[in-house]
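SAMPLE LOG
Freezer: B-3
Tube label: C17
Construct: single chain, 415 aa
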Amino acid sequence: MKPRKPILVMLVVGLTVITALSFVPYTLTFVADAEQLVSATFDAAPAAASSNARVHVETPPFDAAAWYGIRGEQVETHGVLAETYDGGKTIAAHNANALYNPASLIKLATSLAVLRKLGVGYRFQTRVYADGAIDSNGTLRGSLHFAGNDPTFGDVTALRVLDELKTRGIKRVTEGIFVSPDFSFNYNSPEKSAQNLARSLKLPAKKWEASEQATGALLFTVESNPLPEILLYMNAHSVNFIAERLGDLVGGASGVTMFLVSEVKIPARDVLLESTSGLGHNQMTPRGMIAVVRALVEETKRLGLKPEEIMPVVSDDTGTLRRRMKGTELEGAVVAKTGTLTQEVDGGMSSLAGLVYTKNEGMILFAIFDQGNRIADNRQMQDEILRELVLSQDAPRPLPQVARKLLPREELIVH
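STRUCTURE (predicted):
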């Protein structure tokens, strides 16, 4: 007879495998339930929740994934998070922890960092020096020097400078117009800025160029608009040059990243910045962007401001949001920032983040990321999904319509 030992071994092994497999569904169910609990917990808790805040684990009432699915969209290319300002209620959450390129929404992070670091009263200063003597004919026998890093210095500022020079009897300059290496006129390089400034001031000179050091006597100082007004203009028109220049004041992309991680408490794995304007390859999650918006609201409140003093109001202010949501219930009730990248960067990106004023829920904070080069389609979907998720919970509360002129205005300090 053949030995039965191998047969018995096979039977034992088979029974063991069958027993183990019988527990797999329960194990998978436990893991899925655990993941759902963790996800729901994060969806309900604000980035800076207090220790006694209630944690809500129920499914958000608005199904953003289904909303995109019905429209035939690839749901993985969209990320949405919307919740009340106090973090107590999550209205919609879809791919809230997935990394996307937020494009110019990075300017909100830059706005927050410079407000916190520089303060509400910060102004750029441009100092004007005269190196030489002024004769009886109004000719400066020498040169004019401009030193400053104001990214908003432009035509209107130059006209103010020209008026001040005339009051001081300066009509001509014999030598040159010199600017500091960080000086810009209408967002141009220092060399181009010196040339354009000379033309704008209508002061014939032998040369115009950048100079390492200003020389001569200080005539007067030009101060820019206060920081909140600069931020409002930057965010409304999404001016990359201003965002980069402001970012330089707080350590550039690495400085803003460190600020978001250390002070806003966004996990380091959830933020990657290559610029402070949103150009290039940057990454954040919808949850991280909500944390930025919430912190920005808190910071403006601390400084005695309102969010709409540094961010544009949809359909009310000039800029990238001028024609968005016009004629809908959200007109005048949304304070937000847009983000757009062409297909060359991360396959294209369109994003929108900010807050909606409502009658009962107060502020509803939101962040919507749509990946792909169908920019116009994605913008339309952003407006539609925001409208539907807000109306599913409350009625918007439009702000009083106030005509406001976004820059320029500056002040001269005469010495």
